[in-house]
Design brief:
Blueprint (H helix, E strand, L loop, with lengths): L1 E4 L35 H11 L2 E8 L3 E8 L1
Antiparallel strand pairs: 1-3, 2-3
């Protein structure tokens, strides 16, 4: 099991179902900070996890942060 946590801005409930989709980026109007990148990182991470028979999930609370968990079987 691999767990990565932060205490950042978190991910909104409306964005959570899409964060592993290729090229998905959160709505910039909801975020005070500039959003950079191309929306590929989490999609690639999920693909790599799947290639290793692992699952990856996220728990997040806006304003509190996020926790990503990869379970390897």
């Amino acid at each position: 099991k691999l767990i990565v946590s932060d205490n950042g801005i978190g991910i909104s409930k409306s964005d959570l179902p899409h964060i592993f989709d290729r090229f998905y980026r959160a709505d910039q109007s909801r975020n005070k900070n500039e959003i950079s990148g191309f929306g590929l990182g989490l999609s690639i991470a999920k693909k790599i996890a799947n290639l290793h028979s692992a699952s990856i999930r996220v728990e997040s609370k806006p304003g509190k942060g996020s926790t990503f968990t990869a379970n390897f079987s």
